[in-house]
Design brief:
Elements: H1 3-30, E1 38-44, H2 51-66, E2 71-72, E3 75-83, H3 88-101, E4 106-109, H4 113-126, E5 130-132, H5 142-145, E6 147-149, H6 156-168, E7 173-178, H7 181-196, E8 209-211, H8 220-228, E9 233-237, H9 240-250, E10 260-263, H10 270-274, E11 282-285, H11 294-306, H12 314-332, H13 339-346, E12 360-361, E13 367-379, E14 382-394
Parallel strand pairs: 1-3, 1-4, 4-5, 5-6, 7-8, 7-9, 9-10, 10-11
Antiparallel strand pairs: 2-3, 11-13, 12-13, 13-14
Helix pairs in contact: 2-12, 3-4, 6-7, 12-13
Length: about 400
């Protein structure tokens, strides 16, 4: 065969081989397997005292999934829902089922600080990350390694409002809260910071008054103690059904003319149940539905479409953000996002765009974020927590 024909034939053969290889690659790409479905566990109080909070956490996470085609990091999500109830007694078996039976790659939600403390060892043993979406207590050592919260450390709200109250209130403040871990952290954040800046408690002996939880439904005897203390203001934390009882009875008590400050006592659906008794209460929060930023406008619009009868809460917002965190972490964890890889990527996220404003995780795996002062006012026909001013950035 002449040399020229041999060269042409060789090039044709090589071309056919390259073409075949290219076709084979294209065929493989077209027939590649879709992203695997991942199981995420949601654990929240869907019954009991904090049912309203747990429901908001669930709705916030589900809203993110709904607006992102049911996927996180490109993977379809099978959300496994479990009831935390009122605390560790019900939270631990529910978490155990998510870990051992459902084999979830991550857990989200959890209302109670005591529940977090009880569930954390189970998660650490299984090496499954918790992207919590409510306040939590401080954790140490390996228990903290895989535990994150998109909400706040439970002491942050009280810490952020202490200076404001010190500046506004001319005299001692009475501190009262529920007798359990969340109460200790929430009210303790205020009393510790208040003392550091020279504030004085009106409580006898300077000791916070703790009310039995969840047994206390009649707060009137405690309000008589507040009146007798000559306090110039009251600081408290209650949520859910306990907050409704506290606020309504406060306005019927001898203490009704003493200014009331608090964390979460008017947050969410409980505000409408409290009615006019909640008017003028000043409260601290890391979110307000009337914040003016693009992320919040999108979030509020999506929420109103899904839940036209309600206003988004900080609980719903933090759970929406928990889904956003998992979305980014799973997407960065590669084709096989194991719990360990997801946890590793959460720690690398940096700044996160959020309806509350931009934030990022601090060393304690909780947000470094701004806190806001709000006041309950009539907004149209309904009561609302209206933004008053910025307070402090806490979490660094």
């Amino acid at each position: 065969m002449p040399l020229q024909r041999r060269v042409v034939s060789t090039f044709l053969a090589v071309g056919l081989l390259i073409g075949a290889a290219g076709c084979a690659k294209d065929d493989k790409a077209e027939g590649s397997s879709p992203a695997s479905t991942l199981k995420i566990g949601f654990l929240g109080s869907l019954t009991g005292t904090y049912q309203a909070v747990g429901t908001d956490l669930k709705n916030g996470f589900e809203l993110y999934l709904k607006t992102h085609d049911g996927k996180l990091g490109g993977h379809p999500i099978d959300l496994k829902i479990a009831d935390e109830g009122d605390g560790a007694t019900t939270a631990v078996p529910a978490a155990t089922k998510l870990i051992k039976d459902e084999k979830v790659v991550a857990v989200t939600g959890i209302v109670g600080g005591g529940s977090v403390q009880s569930v954390a060892p189970l998660l650490a043993e299984a090496k499954i990350p918790l992207i919590g979406s409510n306040g939590r207590p401080d954790l140490k050592g390996n228990l903290l390694d895989g535990v994150w919260t998109t909400s706040f450390m439970s002491s942050d709200p009280g810490q952020s409002i202490a200076q404001y109250i010190k500046d506004k209130v001319q005299g001692p403040v009475f501190a009262i809260g529920p007798d359990y871990q969340g109460g200790y952290d929430e009210v303790g954040g205020f009393t510790t910071e208040f003392g550091k800046i020279g504030g004085q408690l009106a409580n006898p002996g300077g000791k916070t008054l703790w009310t039995p939880f969840p047994a206390t439904t009649n707060f009137l005897p405690y309000f008589s103690q507040i009146k007798a203390s000559n306090a110039k203001a009251v600081y408290t934390f209650y949520a859910g059904a306990a907050a409704i009882a506290f606020v309504k009875q406060y306005k019927q008590s001898d203490a009704k003319d003493i200014p009331l400050y608090g964390a979460f006592i008017t947050e969410g659906s409980i505000l409408q149940a409290e009615g006019d008794a909640a008017k003028d209460i000043l409260n601290v929060c890391n979110y307000s539905p009337d914040l003016d930023n693009e992320e919040n406008r999108k979030f509020v619009a999506a929420w109103k479409q899904a839940h036209p009868e309600s206003t988004p809460t900080t609980f719903a917002m933090a759970s929406y953000d928990a889904a956003a965190v998992l979305d980014r972490a799973i997407g960065a964890a590669g084709a096989d996002p194991t719990p360990e890889k997801i946890n590793e990527q959460v720690g690398k996220l940096g700044q996160i765009s959020s309806p509350r404003g931009n934030w990022q995780f601090g060393k304690n795996h909780a947000p470094i974020q701004k806190w806001y002062l709000r006041q309950v006012r009539t907004d149209g026909r309904a009561l609302a927590n209206v933004l008053v001013q910025d307070l402090a950035t806490v979490g660094a």
